[in-house]
Design a protein that fits this description.
The complex is a heterodimer of chains A (273) and B (191). Chain A has 11 helices and 8 strands. In chain A, β6 and β7 form a beta hairpin. Chain B is mostly helical. Chain B is built from 9 helices and no strands. Classes of the chains: A alpha+beta (273), B mainly alpha (191).
C-alpha cells in the first residue's frame, strides 16, 4: 500500500515538474521569430512533396522565401498550389493579401505515337541518349521515343508508357501541372495547357526543319489547314512559325469541326477535368 | 581519466548503439539518405542524449533510489526524455532560428527514439557516476552519428551505382548495414 502511494506520488511529481518546466520555458522565453511563424503558416498550404519545380529546395524553403517576399509567389510560382483555387484563396486570406489563382493546368504530349521504326536502337535507354543518334530511331524525327525520361521525374506518377503506341501518356486526373516533365523531354513534346482546353494537336511535325532524306511521318499533321478552314469563328489559327495548327490557350474554345475533319485524326479531344 | 576514455570508446565503437545494440534503427534507415540531414540528426541526438542522461541520472539517484522504487525508472525516464526534448525544441525555436532550421525538424523524431532511453538505462545499469554518465552519453551519441554519417555517405553513392533492380533502395541498404555491422565487429576486443 505504502509503495503504491509512493509510486503515484513520485510519478505525479515528476510529471508536474516536467509540465511546469515546459510552461516556464514557454512563458519566459522571448517570442519566436515572426518570419518563422509566417513560414510555417505558409508551408501548410504548400503541397509538401518537395518536388522542387518552383526552383527552391523543398516546400519549406519556398515558404521561407515567400514569407520574406510575397512577390516570389508570382515570379516563380508553385504550379501545384496555383492549380488549386481554394488553397490559393485560403493562403491569401491567411496572409491578408488578395491572391487569385490561374486556371488548373495539365501537361499534354504532342505526339500520337505509332510511328514506324527507322532503325533498331540498342543504346542507353533514355530519350536524351536516343535523340543524339541521327534524330532518333523513329521515322518521325520529332516524336516521342517512349523511354520515359519524363516518367521518372513526375512526382505524382501521372505519366505512364502506353504499351501499344510506344509513347508516354499523361493521366490528366493525376497531373498537377508542375511542369517538371516539360524540361525533361529532348523533343520538347510536353506542354502545359489549361485543363479546360477542349482539344490539342497530337503531333509536332516541324516541316520547316525538314531533314533531307527522311520521309514524312505518315501519321502526323500534313499541314493541309483543313482544321483552320473548318473552324468558323477562328477557334483554330495557323502557327506560321511551326507550320502547325494553333489552339489559343487564352480562349480555350472547342472546335469539334476541326477534330472531325482532320484527315489524319491528330487533333485529340480532351475531356475537361 | 583512463576509465573515462575507455567508456567513451566502448560506447562509441565497441558497443555501438546501432550496430551492436540494435537501438535507434528507425533513424538509421529513415534519415540516412542524405549526409547533411544525417549529420544534423546525429548532432541533435548527441545533445538530447547528453541532457537526458544527466537529468535521468540525477532523478534516479536523488528520487528513485532513496525511496526504493527503482523499478519505476522506465516510466519516469520516458516522461523526462519526452518533456526534455520538448523544452529543447521550444528553446532552440525561440532563440536561434538558424539552428532550429538545421535541427528542429529532427528533434520531435528523437522524443521516441529508443537509443536515448537505452543510454539512460545503460548508465544506471553500469552504476556510472555523473562524469562517467556524461562521457558515456556523449560516446553513444558520437557513435550513433558516426554510423549514420557512414551509412548516408554509402547510400548517396549507392544511388548512383548500378544496383540490380530488385535490390534498389531499401534492400541494398540492409545489405550495407550488414557489412557495416561486420566491420564494427572488429572493434570487439578493444576494451
Amino acid at each position: 500500500m505504502d509503495n503504491t502511494v509512493l509510486i503515484i506520488v513520485s510519478l505525479t511529481l515528476v510529471g508536474m515538474g516536467c509540465g511546469i518546466a515546459i510552461f516556464l520555458v514557454n512563458r519566459f522565453l522571448p517570442e519566436e521569430d515572426k518570419l518563422l511563424k509566417k513560414t510555417e503558416e505558409i508551408s501548410k498550404f504548400l503541397p509538401g512533396m518537395n518536388c522542387g519545380a518552383c526552383g527552391y529546395p523543398g516546400c519549406f524553403a519556398y515558404a521561407g522565401e515567400i514569407a520574406k517576399d510575397i512577390d516570389i509567389l508570382q515570379t516563380s510560382p508553385c504550379m501545384v498550389l496555383m492549380n488549386d483555387d481554394k488553397k490559393v484563396k485560403a493562403l491569401g486570406n491567411a496572409l491578408g493579401v488578395d491572391l487569385s489563382s490561374g486556371d488548373k493546368k495539365v501537361a499534354v504530349v504532342h505526339c500520337g505515337g505509332n510511328s514506324e521504326i527507322l532503325y533498331e536502337y540498342k543504346g542507353i535507354d533514355t530519350c536524351k541518349a536516343a535523340a543524339q543518334l541521327s534524330s532518333g530511331f523513329k521515322k518521325c524525327p520529332y516524336g516521342c521515343f517512349g523511354f520515359g525520361d519524363c516518367v521518372n521525374v513526375c512526382p505524382e506518377n501521372a505519366i505512364s508508357i502506353d504499351p501499344e503506341k510506344k509513347i508516354v501518356v499523361i493521366d490528366p486526373d493525376k497531373c498537377i501541372g508542375c511542369g517538371l516533365c516539360t524540361k525533361e523531354c529532348p523533343q520538347n513534346l510536353i506542354e502545359i495547357i489549361p485543363a479546360k482546353m477542349p482539344q490539342y494537336l497530337a503531333c509536332n511535325y516541324l516541316s520547316k526543319k525538314n531533314i533531307p532524306g527522311r520521309e514524312r511521318c505518315p501519321l502526323g499533321c500534313i499541314h493541309c489547314r483543313i482544321c483552320v478552314k473548318a473552324s468558323e469563328n477562328e477557334e483554330v489559327t495557323w502557327n506560321e512559325e511551326k507550320d502547325l495548327p494553333f489552339f489559343d490557350p487564352e480562349k480555350c474554345v472547342p472546335s469539334p469541326a476541326a477534330v472531325e475533319k482532320c484527315p489524319k485524326k491528330v487533333i485529340f479531344e480532351r475531356n475537361e477535368t | 581519466m583512463d576509465n573515462l576514455f575507455s567508456i567513451f570508446i566502448m560506447m562509441a565503437l565497441v558497443n555501438n548503439f546501432v550496430l551492436a545494440k540494435f537501438l535507434g534503427l528507425c533513424p538509421f534507415f529513415g534519415v540516412s539518405k542524405k549526409l547533411s540531414s544525417a549529420v544534423s540528426m546525429g548532432i541533435a541526438v548527441i545533445v538530447v542524449m547528453f541532457a537526458a542522461s544527466v537529468v535521468s541520472w540525477l532523478l534516479f539517484y536523488q528520487l528513485l533510489v532513496p525511496f526504493g522504487i527503482t523499478y519505476m525508472r522506465t516510466a519516469i525516464f520516458i516522461l523526462v526524455i519526452a518533456s526534455l526534448v520538448q523544452i529543447l525544441e521550444i528553446t532552440i525555436r525561440r532563440t536561434n532560428v538558424n539552428l532550429y532550421n538545421a535541427l528542429g525538424i529532427y528533434l520531435p523524431l528523437i522524443t521516441t527514439n529508443c537509443a536515448v532511453l537505452g543510454v539512460t538505462f545503460i548508465n544506471v545499469d553500469q552504476a556510472f557516476n555523473l562524469a562517467e554518465t556524461i562521457v558515456s552519453a556523449l560516446g553513444a551519441g558520437v557513435g550513433f552519428t558516426l554510423v549514420l554519417a557512414i551509412m548516408s555517405g554509402i547510400r548517396e553513392k549507392l544511388d548512383l551505382a548500378d544496383v540490380p533492380k530488385a535490390f534498389k533502395g531499401i534492400p541494398v541498404a540492409f545489405l550495407v548495414a550488414m557489412l557495416l555491422g561486420i566491420a564494427f565487429l572488429a572493434f570487439g576486443g578493444m576494451v
